[in-house]
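DM from R.C. (forwarded with permission)

"hey, sorry to bug you on a friday — could you get me a structure for this? deadline for the figure draft is monday and I only need the backbone to look sensible"
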Amino acid sequence: MTSSSGTASSRTASLGKVSAGGASVGSASPGDGDGDGGGGRPAGAVARARRQLPTSPWLFAAPGLLVVGIFILYPFVSTVVNAFTDRRTLIPGEFVGLANFRELLHDEMFWIGLRNSTLYVLGVVPALVLLPLLLALLVQRNIPGIAFFRSAFYTPVVASIVVVGLIWVWLLDERGLVNSLLEAIGVGRVGFLSDQWLLLLSAMTVTVWKGLGYYMIIYLAALANVPRELHEAAAVDGAGAVRRFLTVTVPAVRSTMVLVGALSSVAAFKVFSEVYLMAGPGGGPAGEDTTLVMLVQRTGTGLTGRVGYASAISVVVFVVTVALMLLVLRADRKEDA
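My reply, with the result:
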């Protein structure tokens, strides 16, 4: 009896060890080996997905990066490199260091172009910061027929600059519509396109006229976020329309005004089409209305174009435009402080 009960006990103990071993095997970590993950995905698949994740966004961005690299980064780097060479259109050129930039200091046309581009910024930017805001306030209200005026004000933006320039040339020509009206009322004909300063002012007018609708849309989006309660509270306090504009509207859209100032200043300093169309390739009387970008085009094109010298002027234009943007942003930060 004793031996049989001992044998049974030993068998029971063996079976317990086997079942305990089986339980320990079955309770292995789900992530070990090729077992299923917590979500039912194999661990190998998860590891492969993690290895592929860093490259997937670059594959989607590759077409855009390729376009940027070919049409923006490569021309920019090439321009900077050419600025330190004497390259011409059909001649590769050699490294000349700062010779092109030293020549700029003694080039009268460069200083004329710098003067005209600077005057263009001073004449155009204030108008494009303020006038579109006033225009946006006029067309902001929902009254019958306002959609027609919004479309009419935006039409010059979508029109070709060549068409716009030719229209204004026909208007301001010696025998154009404006001079005909001035002669009819006894004022006499005015040389809008023959006088140095009037020609530059006429080109500024075209730039402002064409840009009004574009910046008006930007201001409309900003004005839509201004709480109406602020205007109502100011009106209750007795503030008139001008005071509400200065104390409510202007502070609310100040960041948008900074943006418009930065965009318009860069565009004005790089002006080309308006002056080229109204003054001609020569830049007006004796070239006195030439801008820096016109000088780049005139110097660096043609079979004998001085590509290296034109690249040096382009580098100066780039540095000045970056400086303009930094000055505008710095002024905005000072006001915030």
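R.C.: lifesaver. Confidence is low (pLDDT under 50) at residues 1-38.
me: no worries. The radius of gyration is 35 Å.
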